[in-house]
Predict the 3D structure of the following.
Amino acid sequence: MLYRVVSTQFRTRNRFPPSLELHERRGCEAEAATLAQKIKLSTIAEALGVSTATVSLALRDSPLVADQTRERIKAHARDIGYIYNRRAASLRTSRSGIIGVVVHDIMNPFYAEILRSIEDELDRSGQTFLLSNHYDQVEKQRAFIDTLLQLGADGIIMSPAIGTPLADIELAEKNGLPTVLIARNVPGSDVPAFRGDDAYGTGLSTKHLIELGHRRIAMVGGTDQTSTGRDRYQGYVDAMKAAGLEVKPEWRIAGPRNKLAGFDATEKVLAIEPRPTAAVCWNDLVAIGLMNGLARAGLTVGTDLSVTGYDDLQEAAIATPALTTVWNGQREVGRRAAKTLLERLAGHDVHGGQELIRPELRVRQSTGAPPA
Amino acid sequence: MLYRVVSTQFRTRNRFPPSLELHERRGCEAEAATLAQKIKLSTIAEALGVSTATVSLALRDSPLVADQTRERIKAHARDIGYIYNRRAASLRTSRSGIIGVVVHDIMNPFYAEILRSIEDELDRSGQTFLLSNHYDQVEKQRAFIDTLLQLGADGIIMSPAIGTPLADIELAEKNGLPTVLIARNVPGSDVPAFRGDDAYGTGLSTKHLIELGHRRIAMVGGTDQTSTGRDRYQGYVDAMKAAGLEVKPEWRIAGPRNKLAGFDATEKVLAIEPRPTAAVCWNDLVAIGLMNGLARAGLTVGTDLSVTGYDDLQEAAIATPALTTVWNGQREVGRRAAKTLLERLAGHDVHGGQELIRPELRVRQSTGAPPA
DNA sequence: CTAGGAATTTAAAACGTTTAATCCAGAGCG
DNA sequence: CGCTCTGGATTAAACGTTTTAAATTCCTAG
């Protein structure tokens, strides 16, 4: 009984012994040059006249081995440049220390903050994180899940691709790969999911524009195929209706969610008759693209036409004019997702279902009163 | 002899059997729900009355097993939802199918193209790629190398952190982790390295400005601590000297390499007496930040002050005014690096040392004749 | 028929860990 | 002196593959 407690304690404390402490390792020119043969636990065991079991326990700081023995072993391991073989270990323990993270596109700055905070959280716990894009291709996402299963990953954090079938998530869960969703949800799934409250967010910016006096407000970028897309549009529509304003279908300009898309949408916005006096953009990238396009067309953003973004990326503040946008709580989303997954791994019960992070409006210079 | 040939052939062809073909798998509600116990090779072997050896070979499409047997085995594996255990396999084969990629910052758009092309190349070869940031912290980079060694990764592509000691690269190489460098070089290392020809690149933009008539040209952003930094500065200096122009030390405004840094550099540039008429920026991010800053200050970029970038990011073309910049060949760098690593893994000899990709100038509206 | 391959299949030994179950030597105690 | 207890160390059985070498079956030619 005592044994078990002690055992689990050190197991969770320090899962993987660091194999390499280069600066401290004594340089052994000759042997390092060729690396005659792989150094393993038994190499150390033989050299020191103990068993591999002892070496294994010592390297993981088990209290089961005498202090003096432990130090002797660790010192020797360091000296000869032992490298811990995680594959072998994880084959035995069925814990790999790998956590998969898959999002639409790693390089999309929207995910930057999320990934960053996930990384922080996982680093702290000693897990390695394995990153991938799915580019909204369900097959690519499934291939990644498959890879994780094969590698025996401990869990997965995913921003599901458009059209992800419930079965894919169940596949992961059923095969012992605890899952947490971020940024998007999969209808019908009951795994924990963290996302910003998108409807509330676009509601904020739309209301802000209405208060400034705008009546004809376009909505640029995005798709109705994701929960995020539907919610953002809904928030806009609801705010308009709440103010007793009509929503014209031609004000909705759907499309991709990058700068180029915003830039390309410029013409379409300007073609609407009568011209809208403001545009709620899907995200900051679209907004910045649109602002660039409007500037090219000779219009002054914030005066001739007001623009709002979403996400509050770093560059929203330094765009010209500075972009009014909605802070999305990405950092919080990532942190909570990672923490929740770690909880699940630790065996604690967590409650599933969606949790919404409340966004905030950041008013800057890209919005102003409509032209008289 | 024949055996060996055949053996290696199918080994390289299809390293890992795909374990999951969800859409084709027959739904078995009851068993799927609980997943009584792990399905392994022996599960299949017993069910079909063959040996695990046969199953193993069949799943990897070995020509050693009869066509009919192979199909029977593969079908059954699919039906019961067998998942290939890579850890076990790689313990035996010492090939993990993992390739590590570490760069300064994944989310930096400069690396976007590189990573994308690496991903393309590796995907094609069936390798999984494990991504990480080092944020220019040597320790973080070393921790990543350590993790890769522990996981038994097959190779690593890295953009070395500032101050990477030669020993770290040797550590990887000596322990059987073939290394290829991108974007930066480590002095003294002889592993293959691919980067843009930075000196030539800034030479191009500097020469372009000189030809337009500029005489006082500042250089904004970047550091002298990387090979890239030194080369870019050198290219600028050489071009100036070649034109018989003086280079004032106060024209060099070193700093971080993001938009905010460019934005913040605005004041410093404008404070120089007499004011430069053009600025060669470290990269597009800095250039765009600077352009934003100049616009805020009421100056017209391309007329009052010309600006050049570096990298030719997507947004360079849609910035206002469109940014004159240098295309860096990132895609080529990534492709070549991945290809070279795969060559090394296949056992072919590749020649080490640095290879430079030649950049190209992209003239747009952010550069013009100096003000009279 | 039968020898001799060719075509299939298999037994069993790795691969390098972890850990439950023992073992052992002293220490403490009646 | 015999007994239990305990801190330390060890033994040996996994973990799920791959692959060598051998065994078996199947043909085909002589």
About this structure: Residues 76 and 306 of chain B are 67 Å apart (CA to CA). Residues 1-14, 22-35 of chain B have pLDDT under 50 and may be disordered. Residues 50-54, 57, 64-66, 69, 88, 90-94 of chain B lie near DNA strand C (CB under 10 Å from a C1'). The first strand of chain B starts at residue 98 and ends at 103.
